[in-house]
Amino acid sequence: MSKRENPYVSQSPGSTPKKRMFSAVQANLNTFTGLPYSDKYYDILEKRKTLPIWEQREEIIDCVQKHQVVLLAGETGSGKTTQIPQLLVEAGIVKDKMVGCTQPRRVAAMSVARRVAEEMDVKLGEEVGYTIRFEDLTSEKTILKYLTDGMLLRESMADPLLERYGAIILDEAHERTLATDVLFGLLKEMLNSRPDLKVVVMSATLDTQKFQDFFIGAPLIKVPGRTFPVDIFYTPEPEKDYLEASIRTVIQIHTCEEPGDILLFLTGEQEIEDACKRITNEIASLGDNVAPLKCLPLYSSLPRDLQDRIFDPPPKSRTPGGPIGRKCIIATNIAETSITIDGVVYVIDPGFSKQKVYNPRIRVESLLVSPISRASAQQRAGRAGRTRPGKAFRLYTENSFKKDLAPQTYPEILRSNLGSVVLQLKKLGIDDLVHFDFMDPPAPETMMRALELLNYLGALDDEGNLTPLGEQMSEFPLDPQLSKMLIYSARFNCSSEILSITAMLSVPNCFIRPKDSQKQADEAKSKFLHKEGDHLTLLNVYHAYKTEHDDPKWCWDNFLNYRSLVQADSVRKQLANIMQRLQVDINSTVFGHREYYPNILKALCLGFFMQVAHLEKQGNYLTVKDNQVVHLHPSSGLNFKPEWVIYSEFVLTTKNYIRVTTSVKAEWLVELAPHYYDLSNFPNCEAKRVLERIYRRSTQSTPNLAHTSI
Questions:
Q1: Cβ-contact 173, 203 below 8 angstroms
Q2: What is the rounded CA–CA span in Å between residue 243 and residue 271?
Q3: How many other CB atoms are there within 10 angstroms of residue 594's CB atom?
Q4: pLDDT at 217
Q5: What CA dihedral angle connects 662, 666, 672 and 674, to 10 degrees?
Q6: How far is it, in rounded angstroms, from Cα 90 to Cα 424?
Q7: Where would I find the beta strands (DSSP E) of 1-108?
Q8: b vs e for 374-389, b when ≥16 Cβ sit within 10 Å of the residue's Cβ?
Q9: What DSSP assignment string belongs to 305-333?
Q10: Residue range 192-203: mean pLDDT, rounded
């Protein structure tokens, strides 16, 4: 038997997929491992049999065998995410190929893979595995893989027909993430070349007509959810402060309602952590007569062991015969879909989530707190009816639900910077982007901005064709600016340092600043600050972490996020492997040499020359070319206002902030990116007058590094 040969395929001539299904159960041997099934396997199997999708498994198999594309609308709790991939493996449909199931979020890919490995009684990372950005837990034995939609898109660059897969399942399709929308178009084009490939598009709230129009003739299977009735409650008047209203509602539920866990949706890590502390303190102030309440946060950057605590049992009563405790899970919208938490009876929905928003005119992409869609509101409410009748408290009016919320989530492709996507499509050989089969085509201006960005970076030539540099840049799972910076850093003899900075920029913020220890945290951070700016501060943190031999206690003592630094170390190793494969030298200037820091700063300029702000006489910064008034973010370590700064992020909150900023010299910008700093198409501003003086002083021309490739 080959390593990937499906062990459920019977050798008997009269065998059919239906007869073969679950034959191993009857034999009491796990055909993946050759070992007897564990007792836990049989316990889980009994629970699987109670899922609504279990009753329709033969109908689903018949449909998948007869059609190349199948749409499946499975309500919350139907079991679609865990059962359909197993079903395709066990029925022998994919033969000796893999089943791939995409998830919009890495947390879901990891948690579902763990659950399915338990259900199949195999070790995670062998027959069942997952792949997320910078983490691949699969092996040669893997026949069922959960992965983020972005990782499947990246795999298609190396394997344009996805030959390793016999079936692709696009889960949570209603979320319409950027990568999923591109995959829709790629898979639709791929079907003619891969008649053996099966595609299943799944969601709880599918816009069925739109999807059937796109995948012409695809049949639809509906699976009911295992949900109990959920009573929906609205506020009579709009809430002025949804966070205050959310905390108040948690306290009211805990003190007045029957036992049952609470799920509260908030928008981000800081908000969630603050709410956890405030609720915990409020409950503690009510005394021992109130049942215990355990607040548990859930967001994507939370360490995995802390994420898993949401599945722990609720706290016991304080005294014998006293009121039973409950959990309060406070989560971002990752708890809307693939992560199902049994025991939740009460859902609190303030009606907001953080969504990516892109303005192509000023080239600003930022996460903004925005109203959710009605489809998301339904998903959230459905989480309350898993184990018994539940209640959903919507902290907005019924009129607002009907009139103000959009029916479906606005596709991410219509509100994103498409630089990375266009680079990937070009790498796949798709040159006619205008006629690429997008389900919802992006605005022409957004597409033009992406082409312009890649042209300035040197990834595309003036005819829009991929350059040798663009070929190399597409190999990195990074924003194009970071890829360009990494490749060219070797020319400045600092690729080792730029690797470390890029890794630190690719993970959650490494600095911890608890509300009750802000002064101590700021003092600890000051030890790492570099006078030139935040990118070099990140480099100092990484160097100190490695000097201290990756010590978690040292991280704790210095208010650093140990998990982020471990992740940065892993990211750095993987990026280094890609650089070595592309034959890009990993080198470094001797520390203490007068060019050590200037070399690093010049390499940073090569990536971020389009993300520059100039200090005006009035004391505020203006972004170069776009003339947007911005301010240094309060978290910046710069203790002075440099004339010129590069920045990694543009953050829209109460003001326009630029975050992760570093001081640079205008002469470097002119030298390294003369094509961008061409004053003939520069708006009138103080920055232009400064650059004019620099050009006049310049007596010799410099090579145009940005349009040369290694």
A1: yes
A2: 8
A3: 8
A4: 84
A5: 140
A6: 34
A7: 69-74, 98-103
A8: bbbbbbbbbbbbbbee
A9: HHHGGGGSPPPPPSSTTSPPPEEEEEE-G
A10: 94
| Distance from C-alpha of 106 to C-alpha of 108, rounded to nearest angstrom | 5
Convert the pLDDT of each residue in 531-552 to its tens digit: 999 999 999 999 999 999 999 9
420 Cβ partners below 8 Å, 6+ apart? Answer: 479, 480
Rounded (10°) CA dihedral 122, 128, 133, 135? 30
Please name which of 586, 614, 588, 611 lies closest in space to residue 599, comparing C-alpha atoms: 588
- Between CA 528 and CA 294 the distance in angstroms is 35
Query: What is the C-alpha separation between 387 and 366, in angstroms, rounded?
Result: 38
**Element spanning 690, H or E:** helix 686-697
Quote the tokens at residue 393.
């408290």
Alpha helices per DSSP H over 346-494 = 374-382, 398-403, 419-427, 444-457, 468-473, 480-489
Asked if residue 13 has pLDDT above 60, the reply is: no
**Contacts for 77 with CB less than 8 Å, ≥ 6 apart:** 51, 52, 225, 226, 227, 340, 382, 385, 386
- Do the strands 98-103 and 144-148 form a parallel or antiparallel pair, or are they unpaired? parallel
Measured distance CA(103)–CA(338) in Å, rounded: 8
Q: Does residue 69 contact residue 218 with C-beta atoms inside 8 Å?
A: yes
682 burial via Cβ count (<10 Å: 0-12, 13-18, 19+): middle
C-alpha span between 653 and 422 (Å, rounded): 29
User: At residue 4, does pLDDT exceed 70?
Assistant: no
If one counts every other C-beta atom within 10 angstroms of the C-beta of residue 591, the result is 9
For residue 112, give the 3-state DSSP assignment. helix
pTM, two decimals, is 0.82
Residue type, 103: Q
Q: Is the pLDDT of residue 117 over 90?
A: yes
DSSP code for 707: G
610 contact partners, CB below 8 Å, separation of at least 6: 363, 453, 456, 481, 624, 676
Type and span of the H or E element at 359: strand 352-359
For the chain, how far is it from start to end, CA to CA, in angstroms?
A: 45
Q: Give the residue-averaged pLDDT of 142-164.
A: 94
Phi/psi for 514 (5° steps) reads -65, 145
Query: What does the alpha-carbon distance between residue 263 and residue 58 come to, in Å, rounded to a whole number?
Result: 35
Cα 416 from Cα 453, distance rounded (Å): 14
135-137/364-371 β-pairing: unpaired
| Residue 157 burial by Cβ neighbours in a 10 Å radius (0-12, 13-18, 19+) | middle
What phi, psi does 540 have (nearest 5°)? Answer: -60, -40
d(CA 103, CA 124): 17
Residue 206: the pLDDT is: 72
Is pLDDT of 137 > 70?
A: yes
Q: Could you tell me the two tokens for 374?
A: 């009605």
| β-strand partners of 265 | 331
Beta bridge partners of 631: 657
